């Protein structure tokens, strides 16, 4: 299969759905809604929503039912990027190839746009269409997973450990602890969310959890490598910012060659986890290869 074509096609489905779910720019409060749409509709790989849909389809579920969950995940992810770019955190000027949210709308609105996206993401998971199509307990389970993945035991917790590690020498277990939470938790929630909405069996969800854990870490290693080897055009943000901020990264701790080896090992382990799945899981296998070999 042509993974680039697949990502383009599913990305378009996600963007159309997001366009429908997000408040219109003309709706009051106009500035807030413009700021939310500015970052949401700025492109991005849409890898979390696509993983959610691919995982749902891998267990034989309907992609249509995964769409609200996929969009909620992208809203949580985009909120985290807006807040991560703020002067109080990474103080970045560029994101997704454009000026960061606070550069356009100011810090206060950027904070509130992030807050609103996080909140609206959970409102979206109570979407009436979703409630008609999927059992309420399954939806509650997905909401619980997303909340845990985003909160102090997940992404926000990982971000705090990351901030506290800046300029310090940390060991590999600490690095893996923070990345499993900062980046890995939401990626894992995307995959588990899709599998649950698709009514996967316990064994399937367990296998996909292993896939998600490996993929999340592989994604972060690839991101660390791209921060050094990518170009600004490819990654849509400034290059070398991790080094400049003395951030703990895989290349800094393991060296470049060993980091690339570790990413490939994790890719192989992710693909091996899908052994019991048929060709419906082919997109997930290809996404694992794409994540490690990507240039953007
Ligand atoms: C501020 C609560 C809070 C959390 C921040 C996700 C995050 C935690 C920070 C983002 C900074 C960063 C570079 C993290 C490393 C990996 C990562 C999440 C990269 C960005 O995700 P992509 O590559 O971005 O999927 P696109 O733009 O393609 O969606």
Assigned CATH architecture: Orthogonal Bundle
Catalogue the unreliable spans: none
- Number of helix segments? 16
Bound molecules: geranylgeranyl diphosphate
Q: How many distinct folded domains? A: 1
The helix content is over 70%
Strand order of the biggest β-sheet? 1-2
Name the beta content range: under 5%
Mean pLDDT: 95
Instruction: Give the strand tally.
Output: 2
How would you explain this protein's 3D organization?
- The protein is globular, with a radius of gyration of 18 Å.
- It has a two-stranded antiparallel sheet.
- The chain has a single domain, classed as Orthogonal Bundle (Farnesyl Diphosphate Synthase), CATH 1.10.600.10.
- It is mainly alpha-helical and 296 residues long.
- The protein has helices at 3-21, 30-40, 47-58, 63-84, 101-105, 107-124, 128-133, 136-150, 155-165, 172-197, 202-229, 232-235, 241-244, 250-254, 256-273, 282-293, and strands spanning 94-95, 98-99.
- The longest helix is centred in the C-terminal third of the chain and has 28 residues, at 202-229.
- The structure holds geranylgeranyl diphosphate.
- Geranylgeranyl diphosphate (GRG) binds at residues 44-45, 47, 77, 80-81, 83-84, 96, 155-156, 159, 182-183, 220, 223.
Features:
single chain, 296 residues, mainly alpha, Farnesyl Diphosphate Synthase, two-stranded antiparallel sheet, 2 strands, 73% helix, globular, binds geranylgeranyl diphosphate
